[in-house]
């Protein structure tokens, strides 16, 4: 009888805590439902971050401040978020140098920065289909199609493979619409959007369909033929078109917006990209 009474007393004492746990779970479920509703209605995440806490080393911050133009244009608030994302990317991915290339902090920071720039408007920014970053000094031989590549995304191996020379040229020359890092990260983002159903992926797929429909417009088709604005490689297939579109969006936004304002708007919405003057 004493044991039963003691058990009843413990149950009474623990009851408020149990109610508290149930209440927290209920509130979290309501918040997630509201978050999904907000994302669907306004076509953007309610919050891109819950917490910003990861730090880069001082030398890594200097690389961003001195060499990465997008970072330089951000407000202090967004710079903190960007540093957090770059630090997260570096912590979660394994960088591997090929053909004797030494992986330095500069290589890590700049590759991570290009990926984080492209995904900066997204809540889901970590590129879950990429575990490894393989970096060659220059062009490399790929067994995927038995030819030399400057870059590739290999989803089966969860690897992004880059020529450092071509990657570096891509981010240094900011107005030629050729950016290897953006191109390959977009391939990874697009495949992830096809496989997942989170708010960023849903928005990506919806705006991607808007872009494809827009390309069937006779006026747009005529203007594409007339201006030859996008380089020929963009029309290889829809995946290459999106990768090239991302390069033009990042590197020459004003010109892109002037030539094809609706395509620009869809791309901006797809990436939720409204930072640094975009």
Task: Provide a compact summary of the structure.
With 278 residues, this protein is an alpha/beta fold. Helices cover 62% and strands 9% of the residues.
Features of the shown structure:
single chain, 278 residues, alpha/beta, Cyclin A, domain 1, four-stranded mixed β-sheet, two-stranded antiparallel ribbon, 12 helices, 62% helix, 9% strand, globular, disordered N terminus
Task: Describe this entry's structure for a reader.
The chain is α/β, with parallel strands linked by helices and 278 residues long. Among the domains are: 1-42; 58-173, Cyclin A, domain 1, CATH 1.10.472.150. The protein has helices spanning 2-42, 58-67, 69-73, 76-92, 105-118, 164-172, 180-195, 199-215, 218-227, 238-251, 253-259, 261-271, and strands spanning 94-97, 132-136, 140-142, 147-149, 151-154, 159-163. The strands form two sheets. A four-stranded mixed sheet has the order 1-2-6-5. Strands 3-4 form a two-stranded antiparallel sheet. The N and C termini lie far apart (73 Å). Mean pLDDT is 89; it is low at 1-5.
């Amino acid at each position: 009888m004493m044991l039963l009474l003691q058990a009843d007393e413990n149950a009474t004492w623990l009851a408020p805590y149990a109610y508290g746990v149930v209440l927290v779970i209920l509130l979290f479920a309501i918040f997630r439902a509201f978050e999904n509703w907000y994302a669907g209605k306004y076509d953007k995440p309610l919050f891109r971050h819950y917490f910003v806490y990861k730090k880069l080393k001082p030398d890594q911050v200097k690389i961003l401040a001195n060499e990465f133009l997008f970072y330089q244009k951000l407000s202090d608030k967004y710079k903190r978020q960007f540093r957090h994302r770059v630090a997260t990317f570096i912590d979660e991915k394994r960088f591997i140098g090929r053909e004797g290339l030494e992986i330095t902090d500069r290589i890590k920071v700049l590759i991570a920065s290009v990926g984080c720039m492209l995904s900066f408007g997204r809540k889901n920014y970590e590129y879950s289909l990429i575990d490894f970053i393989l970096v060659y000094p220059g062009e490399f031989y790929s067994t995927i199609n038995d030819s030399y590549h400057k870059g590739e995304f290999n989803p089966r191996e969860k690897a992004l493979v880059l020529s450092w020379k071509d990657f570096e040229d891509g981010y240094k020359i900011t107005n030629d619409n050729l950016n290897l890092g953006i191109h390959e990260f977009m391939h990874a983002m697009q495949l992830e959007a096809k496989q997942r159903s989170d708010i960023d992926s849903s928005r990506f797929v919806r705006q991607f369909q808007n872009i494809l429909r827009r390309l069937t417009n006779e006026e747009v088709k005529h203007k594409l033929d007339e201006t030859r604005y996008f380089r020929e490689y963009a029309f290889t297939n829809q995946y290459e078109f999106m990768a090239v579109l991302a390069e033009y969006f990042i590197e020459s936004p004003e010109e892109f917006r002037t030539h094809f304002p609706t395509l620009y708007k869809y791309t901006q919405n797809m990436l939720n990209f409204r930072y640094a003057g975009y």
